[in-house]
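Person: Please comment on this record:
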Amino acid sequence: MGRLPFGLLESVWAGRFRDMRPNQLPIPSHFEPGSVASVWRVPYQERSYQAQDWRRRHGIQLASKDTVKVCLVAIDLQNTFCLPDFELFVAGRSGTGAVDDNRRLCEFIYRNLGVVTQVYPTLDTHQAIQIFHPIFLLDCDGQHPAPFTQVSLEDVQQGVWKVNPSVCGQLGMSEEEGYEHLLHYVKALRESEKYELTVWPYHGLLGGIGHALVSSVEEAIFFHGQARQSQPTFQIKGNYPLTEHYSALSPEVLNGPDGRRLGASNTAFLQALVGFDVIIIAGQAKSHCVAWTIAHLLEDPLFGGAGFAERVYLLEDCTSAVVVPEVIDYTDEAEVAFARFADAGMHRVCSTDPVENWPDVPL
């Protein structure tokens, strides 16, 4: 999937948007905004028939005929992060952050069925024994840390936290190797100026209901795929036990103390994104998985070409920061990160604005 020369891209965008008026598409009647905070079964066959009829009624072309290729990267829109009764609800400062974000994102997808060529949903995918879950660590009294505990380099050096000996064998390590790994890991985070190791509640567990996409989001993505005959391309991340994996593109720490790989960068995903003319990014959480994914895009050599950042649009009203009242609040860190992305040339946009009015979309 090659990219168009910039001059040709301008003319194609202009003609396409004049003809399609993308944000004038209505929202299908099956979408119920009040259901975004609930779990339910998507009626796939019924939605498939409706999507095909919707395409015919509104003259929506197949994705394979798109001249300008537009992808939507939908980061970790899973029950575990997006529903108030689940493990790690991203509330933002409003208290209803991810629910409101997903309602707007569903509406954006429906209004822009004819614009978005392909959707790339990412799925945070964990098992219980991982470096950021309570079972991995013990204090001097043999107690596991509480969720949201911050584990610093000094904590490990002073013996405040150590690796649980019972999990070392599960992960193919001796107790000594476990300590060496933990010390190396928190040092690597400090040296790369990343967040300290955070102990998160058990979340995104493979096979559990928290791992699944929010039902309304799943329905919108399925409807888009059926209407445009475009396969949603799911990206699994976070399944390496000895490293965090906020970014959809690469783990936080790639190598262990002995130089062995802890995980791998998702080069196939990176290469796929290179082929799109426009990349739209939304999801949870703005302060963590969204921010680190965007940061990796900026840093990766594949995206070092002139003008790449200008192809990226950040849906600011479809993402929220991690906030746990009186515990942690990453809103300011998220704002600093997004300001840096904008300085690099990326666009901070609102999902409710017509796409043709977004900055630097050539008309």
